[in-house]
Specification:
single chain; about 200 residues; alpha+beta; seven-stranded antiparallel β-sheet; 5 helices; about 30% strand; elongated
C-alpha cells in the first residue's frame, strides 16, 4: 500500500491481514523529496483506527536500529477501509464502488475493474429491460403448438449466446483491448438491434 500523510509517503508491505492486525509488516517512509526518513518492521500492527499501534517495532533510521514496544503511526487507512479494497465488486452498491475507486486512485491501483463494475451497475436496468423485451418477443414468435422442450432449447440457446457475448466484451474491456465504454455498450446495442429486427418481423406477420 502507498499512504501519504503530512507530505511523507509510506510504502507498506504486509504478509496478511488477521481481523484488525497486520502481520509481518515492513513500512518505509520517505519525505516529499523521496529521501528515506525511516523504516519500521513489526509482526503485529493494530489497524482498527487511523492511528495504527505498532507493537514490538524495530525502527531503522540513519543506519541505526532501535527497538520500541509501541509506536503510533498515523494513516489514511484503517481496518474497514483496507478490507473494502479487497471486497467482491459484484456485491457492492454504486456509491460503495465510487468510494472504492477513490481508494484505488489514492493507492495508485488500476481502477479498470472498478470502472467496469460501475458501468455494469449503471447500465443494468437497461440491460434487464432489453432482456425482458427479447424474452417476450421470443415467446410471441414461438408457435403455440411448439413443444415445451423446443421452447426450453431456444431459451437456453439465446442464454448461452448472450452470456458468451457479454463475457467476451467484458474480458476485452478488463484487459484494455477495448475501451470500457465500447465493451459495455456493444452487447447492449447488439441486443437492441436484435429486438428491433424481431419486432419488425412480428409487425410484418
Amino acid at each position: 500500500m502507498k499512504d501519504v500523510v503530512n507530505n511523507q509517503t509510506s510504502i507498506i508491505n504486509s504478509s496478511k491481514i488477521d481481523t484488525n492486525f497486520l502481520t509481518n509488516t515492513f513500512i518505509t517512509t520517505f519525505d516529499k523529496s523521496f529521501n528515506l526518513v525511516r523504516s519500521i518492521k513489526s509482526d503485529r500492527i493494530d489497524i482498527k483506527d487511523n492511528v495504527w499501534l505498532i507493537y514490538n517495532a524495530t525502527i531503522f533510521k540513519d543506519n541505526t536500529s532501535e527497538k520500541s514496544k509501541l509506536v503510533k503511526f498515523k494513516s489514511n487507512f484503517n481496518q474497514k477501509r483496507i478490507e473494502s479494497l479487497f471486497s467482491n465488486l459484484s456485491s457492492l452498491s454504486l456509491l460503495k464502488l465510487i468510494d472504492l475507486r477513490q481508494n484505488y486512485k489514492s493507492l495508485n491501483y488500476s481502477t479498470v475493474d472498478v470502472d467496469m463494475q460501475i458501468y455494469k451497475v449503471a447500465t443494468y436496468p437497461l440491460f434487464l429491460s432489453i432482456m425482458t423485451i427479447l424474452s417476450s418477443i421470443i415467446m410471441l414468435n414461438t408457435k403455440k403448438s411448439s413443444s415445451k422442450i423446443l421452447r426450453i432449447v431456444i431459451g437456453l440457446f439465446f442464454s448461452v449466446v448472450i452470456y458468451y457475448i457479454n463475457n467476451f466484451f467484458n474480458v476485452m474491456g478488463s484487459t484494455e483491448k477495448l475501451p470500457l465504454i465500447i465493451s459495455i455498450w456493444t452487447p447492449i446495442i447488439f441486443l437492441s438491434l436484435v429486438n428491433l429486427v424481431m419486432l419488425v418481423n412480428i409487425n410484418d406477420k
